[in-house]
Amino acid sequence: MDGKTRVCGLIANPVEHSMSPMMHNFFAQRTGVNLAYVPFKVEEDRVGDAVKGAYALNILGMNVTVPHKQRVMEFLSELDEDARAIGAVNTLVRTDAGDKGYKTGPCASRYSHRRRTLFTHWGRRCGQGGSLCAGKGRGCKNPHPQPE
Question: What is the pTM of this model?
Answer without folding.
Answer: 0.73
